[in-house]
Amino acid sequence: MACPFLQDPVDIEAQIIHRTLHRERVIRPRLDMLSFPEEFLLERCRFSSQSILHLNNILKPHVSNTTHRGSALTSLQTLCIALRFFANGSFLYSVGDAEHTGKATVCRSVRKVCLALKQLLYSFVVFPGQKPLMNIKEEFHRIAGCMDGTHIPIKAPAENEGDYLICDVTNIITNVEAKWPGSVHDARIFRESALYSKFDQGQYDGILLADRGYPCMPYVMTPYPDPEPGPQSHYNLALCRTRARVEMTIGILKARFQCLRGLRVTPERACDIIVACVVLHNIATIRREQHPAIPQINDEEEPHVDLPEHRNGRIVRNAICKHHFTD
């Protein structure tokens, strides 16, 4: 039998082996995402065509390939692949089938965009916000922000990522902490954050609203554990209604980026994806992009723990209750 590694083998057997070993590489035509209607883009990428071009201009220096050999993806194609993954959270091969790429290409594209957005974290996620603190407090009834924690399930390994975030009145996330396992209590996550140290040192003059998962402090107002009828009950009701803003923000974030309903990555990469989605959420909010309907939130609440309250925190809370909720 002739050698099958020759360019044109004579024997039939060698030709069969040659065709098996030398399969022609087939490159499927790439999709032009911007040629689709706006409704298609909003449903699959969560951004309009103009916003996708805006994102591409921001991320192009970070995600562009250094070579054009081998039909390399453009920065726009890389971005659209990552946006589709963030938006639907399906398997990588499903995203690849939709985008006419392979699973490995999807994985690399998502990783590139995640790292690029992570570099922009402190440009788009800024506490107390893009406006001066005084203006934010005037818009938000003297409140600097609302704070809450949420769990991001990780399916492999089977655990949760515990995160907390702070939002303003416009549903923009002004602070995020995404590096703790889900077993860590919300209060500890906040206590170990850099923002806690800055509040404790008096660098910010404002109040954060939180639920009973956090201790009452001079700059963190929580509900009364057992409110008495009258001012305390009115205070609890007002706090609950105002703090609903952060629950709405978490709902919008998870509805907009379905991948946060369950990630199939390592905890380290899960942190990067969460940060990337937070940055994209703020960009979408600033550009007034539509968001999907918010489903009923079924996140498990933190187990009730009687956290010690700071004496100064109780004094501030009682003063607020007396001056603003007394008939």
Automatic annotation (TrEMBL):
Keywords: Hydrolase, Metal-binding, Nuclease, Nucleus. It is found in: Nucleus. GO terms for cellular component: nucleus. InterPro entries: HARBI1-like (IPR045249), HARBI1_dom (IPR027806). Residues 148-282 form the DDE Tnp4 domain. The keyword Ubl conjugation does not apply. The keyword Acetylation does not apply. GO terms for molecular function: hydrolase activity; metal ion binding; nuclease activity. Signal peptide: none annotated. Its cofactor is a divalent metal cation. Belongs to the HARBI1 family. This is DDE Tnp4 domain-containing protein. It comes from Pygocentrus nattereri.
